[in-house]
């Protein structure tokens, strides 16, 4: 299945990951949860890994 | 017929142009243009050097004025330099006055190095903008300039996000990260918006570090010593943002049973000094740092401080509830001299609490 014209799957995946990470940090800052290094570090690494993986698999953005 | 091969004659170097002020490449008085032409150096680099030296005790302004006066113009029909002179004197004086007001210690300070670096960046950027990109030098300059600017933006954004989070702006920064994510998702259907990944990461990394370290640097900054004499003076405990918190309990009259003492510090050191016959227990959390009450130091990240001995019934004791972001907690019953303080400190000798509390003080009468 070919991606739709004008659609960038890497941006979509990265956006979902960023929203999840931002939501996690928002919950911590709002006092709903308490982040500690034991979970924050893996969460950040997983987010970065997911973003890089998505961009790598999707290839360069359209137009490059 | 001669065997000699004709040799290629190297063209002689063109004579160096005479040092004159340029009338064709002039912003103020044509000094930089003329110097650049004479020295075969980009006039833009000379202009930036003049600006930088202007911050070094006004040397750039004086040098420019001297060149303006002593170097003749290349166009004999050019108008007298007095209007240019007036412009540069007026502008220079205003610049010097503004800098002197804003930063009185600007003469030859470390700011000069910053200005030099800024000058190089400005030069590279302007060259890139002027050049059509055809030359190799332009390409290298473009990459260096863009790299330096991106690095500066990243470091600045990282520091600003960390400071903003620690100062209580974490919710706003987390909101910005979510907004970047929403922008990425929305942009995905319009060809992509991957550029939003960079600001999201620049904001998320420091906020995550601040959140995990539970840093809250709001409140008092500096060195504070608290000497409560009664439970009423303890109030709800002590809270500081950044610095050294010393709590001297030697004058404290304890009521029967347990007396709670919450201690909260964002970054720094907490020292609790208790008399030898006072039972002190503690629990709490230190995100990064160490806790030492004399019976073995706990250090690392996510340290849970917990009581390691029980208190016999009927004993009057203080229970410390420690909440420290980054730093160390020491609990002891006497001071020791750590050594000479730094040259700028008021006290010549640094004294600190020697970790160690008495287990016997927590035992009731036999």
Choose one word for the global shape of chain A.
elongated
What gyration radius of chain B follows from the Cα positions, in whole Å? 33 Å
Strand residues, percent of chain B: 15-25%
> How many runs of DSSP E, i.e. beta strands of chain A?
0
Query: What is the straight-line distance between the termini of chain A?
Result: 22 Å
Secondary-structure blueprint:
The complex is a heterodimer of chains A (64) and B (366).
Chain A: H1 9-30, H2 37-58
Chain B: H1 31-39, H2 43-54, H3 59-70, H4 82-102, H5 111-130, H6 136-188, H7 197-213, E1 221-226, H8 231-234, E2 238-248, E3 258-273, E4 279-292, E5 298-305, E6 317-340, E7 349-355
Parallel strand pairs in B: 1-2, 2-3, 3-6, 4-6
Antiparallel strand pairs in B: 4-5, 6-7
What does this structure look like?
- The complex is a heterodimer of chains A (64) and B (366).
- Chain A has 2 helices and no strands.
- In chain A, 69% of the residues lie in helices and 0% in strands.
- In chain A, helix 1 packs antiparallel against helix 2.
- Chain A has one domain (10-58).
- Chain A starts with 8 loop residues before the first helix and ends in a 6-residue tail after the last helix.
- Chain A has helices at 9-30, 37-58.
- Chain A has 64 residues and is mainly α.
- Chain B is of the alpha/beta class.
- Chain B is built from 8 helices and 7 strands, in the order H-H-H-H-H-H-H-E-H-E-E-E-E-E-E.
- Chain B has helices at 31-39, 43-54, 59-70, 82-102, 111-130, 136-188, 197-213, 231-234; strands at residues 221-226, 238-248, 258-273, 279-292, 298-305, 317-340, 349-355.
- In chain B, strands 1, 2, 3, 4, 5, 6 and 7 form a 7-stranded mixed sheet that branches.
- In chain B, helix 2 (43-54) packs across helix 3 (59-70), helix 3 (59-70) runs antiparallel to helix 4 (82-102) and helix 6 crosses helix 7 (197-213).
- The radius of gyration of chain B is 33 Å and the shape is elongated.
- Chain B starts with 30 loop residues before the first helix and ends in an 11-residue tail after the last strand.
- The model of chain B has no long low-confidence stretch (mean pLDDT 75).
- At the A-B interface, helix 1 and helix 2 of A face helix 6 and helix 7 of B.
């Amino acid at each position: 299945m070919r991606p739709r014209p004008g659609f960038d799957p890497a941006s979509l995946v990265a956006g979902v990951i960023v929203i999840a990470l931002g939501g996690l940090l928002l919950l911590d800052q709002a006092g709903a949860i308490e982040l500690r290094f034991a979970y924050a570090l893996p969460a950040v690494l997983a987010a970065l890994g997911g973003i890089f993986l998505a961009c790598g698999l999707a290839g360069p953005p359209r137009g490059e | 017929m001669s065997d000699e091969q004709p040799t290629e004659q190297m063209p002689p170097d063109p004579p160096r142009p005479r040092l004159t002020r340029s009338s064709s490449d002039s912003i103020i008085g044509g000094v930089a243009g003329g110097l650049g032409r004479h020295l075969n150096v980009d006039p833009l680099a000379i202009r930036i050097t003049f600006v930088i030296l202007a911050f070094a005790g006004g040397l750039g302004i004086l040098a420019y004025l001297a060149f303006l006066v002593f170097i003749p113009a290349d166009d004999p029909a050019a108008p007298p330099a007095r209007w240019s002179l007036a412009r540069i004197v007026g502008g220079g004086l205003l610049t010097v006055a503004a800098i002197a007001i804003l930063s009185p210690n600007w003469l030859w300070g470390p700011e000069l190095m910053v200005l030099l670096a800024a000058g190089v960046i400005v030069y590279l950027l302007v060259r890139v903008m002027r050049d059509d990109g055809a030359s190799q030098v332009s390409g290298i300059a473009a990459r260096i300039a863009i790299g330096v600017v991106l690095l500066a933006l990243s470091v600045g954004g990282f520091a600003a996000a960390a400071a903003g989070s620690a100062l209580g702006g974490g919710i706003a920064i987390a909101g910005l990260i979510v907004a970047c994510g929403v922008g990425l998702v929305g942009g995905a259907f319009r060809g992509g918006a991957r550029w939003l990944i960079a600001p999201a990461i620049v904001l998320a990394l420091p906020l995550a570090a601040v959140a995990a370290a539970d840093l809250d640097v709001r409140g008092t900054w500096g060195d504070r010593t608290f000497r409560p004499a009664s439970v009423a003076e303890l109030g709800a405990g002590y809270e500081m943002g950044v610095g050294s918190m010393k709590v001297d309990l030697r004058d404290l009259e304890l009521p029967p049973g347990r007396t709670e003492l919450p201690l909260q510090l964002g970054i720094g050191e907490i020292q609790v000094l208790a008399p030898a016959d006072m039972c002190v227990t503690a629990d709490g959390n230190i995100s990064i740092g160490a806790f030492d009450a004399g019976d073995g130091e706990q250090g690392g990240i996510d340290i849970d401080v917990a009581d390691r001995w029980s208190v016999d019934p009927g004993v009057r004791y203080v229970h410390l509830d420690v909440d420290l972001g980054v730093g160390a907690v020491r609990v002891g019953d006497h001071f020791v001299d750590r050594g000479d303080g730094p040259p700028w400190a008021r006290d010549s000798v640094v004294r600190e609490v020697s970790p160690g509390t008495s287990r016997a003080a927590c035992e009731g009468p036999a």
